[in-house]
Write a structure and sequence with these properties.
about 15% strand, about 500 residues, Rossmann fold, Helicase, Ruva Protein, domain 3, 19 strands, globular, single chain, five-stranded parallel beta sheet, alpha+beta, Tumour Suppressor Smad4
Length: about 500
Amino acid sequence: MNDATVAPTLPWGLPWSREGHTVLCLGIVWHSDPSRIGMIAPLAFGSDGFFAVSRLEPVFRAAQGRDQGALDDRHISRQPVLIRRCAGRSFEITPPESRMMVTVNGRPVTGPTVVDLDELGADILIGLSDKVILSIFETSLPLQNEAARHGLIGISHGLQMAWAMIHRVAPTNLPVFVTGATGTGKELAASAIHALSPRASHKLHTINMATLAPSLAQSELFGAAAGAYTGAARERTGLFALADGSTLFMDEVGDTPAEVQPMLLRALESGEYRRLGDARNQKADVRVVSATDRPLDGVDFNQPLRRRLEGVVIRLPPLRERRVDIGLLLRCFLTRSEPQLEPFDPAQLPAAQILPLLLHPWPGNIRELLGAARQIRLGMPVLLAGGQPGGAVSPLQNGPAPTPVLAEAVKGDEPKRRDPATVTDAELVAALDEAGWNIKAAAGLLNISRTSLYRLMERSPALRDSADISDEQLREVMRRYPGDVEAWARDLRLPKDSLKRHLRRIGVSP
């Protein structure tokens, strides 16, 4: 993370890091004026070490760099909230001596409060009155707006980095492997890669590999000659022939039937394939984009095929790592045209009603947020994952708006913890993958304590110790996923904290 005070300046006169590097920013996650959502101000700490936030400062600007002014809401105090950078990724938030309620990550604060940027994943959420929620976050500047035109909406570092890779690789013919948890937008990434490629004039062809029956997989992908199987009166054209000169998106590629994996490898390496029941080879010029939400390093997946698919790896971050984007996404989902749904004015939702959504872990990611937005548009109380009601988000409730403490009350009403003995190895690995190999988050997904999770990990044959990692393996994952510690941990089957300690011991900087 770069210090914003030792860098060049933005076009509007505020300092930031070199292009392509991260910079600390303050983003507007929610505002009484929905048009202000998504605006940013780089954190430029003064000579006294503080950054002031009030009704009158700082100046926030849209991603396009247009001057938009300060928060400018009469409910926001003229006396500033002070932000000070502490050691590492910690910040001290000091509320003003005024009647304005200030919350930090959903907790009301009355005095100086130190909070870490990693507490919620990658954001520190600051609530001002019942009108505005801000986020301290990292991103890359200048922000790229073209991503939103392809449905990839957000100003977070993770989303901006993914878009930069999409933009760079799209004009090539390289195979692209899109990884990310379910609901993160992998199909949108594939569509954007195709739309920005020289093949965009042709139709993008898509197949979900999990739906392929092993007996029909070869004919579905490569076609079949007439009489190749019972009932095949005519020849069948496969997807590789249909996608000749275009792009083939293979979703859930980790579920590809084992019988066709060697055939798929050959098609990717040579461009040649053979139809079922045919003695001759066919050729096709197909650019392959693949995606999965699970690792491909198991014995049930052809490893040469995996390496071929991973020509370029693009990771889409889970929503819990990009909470600063939730306001932008929610505004889009509430107002866009959808059959049988009336547009909903985001201005009707005060910040206190949005806060439970911002604090939610979103195991279903963007797909789950879309479902919540549709419930709001239908006037229904929002039910978050796990059956917990997010009643604070219902636009039809009566009485005064609830306070942000409601989010803590919802958390405190969690069901009884699960018996760790019922957790299978497969569930353990899946939860760790879903949580980015973060112990606390994985324990929450499994509804067990962190102590229990550590015990399960010690006994699991599917996991490994840092001492088992060879220098060659470490170099390989660092090459495949430059700078992405979470991807290293996922690939090496090692908790992220343990991996970081191992890297420090051997003198490697993440």
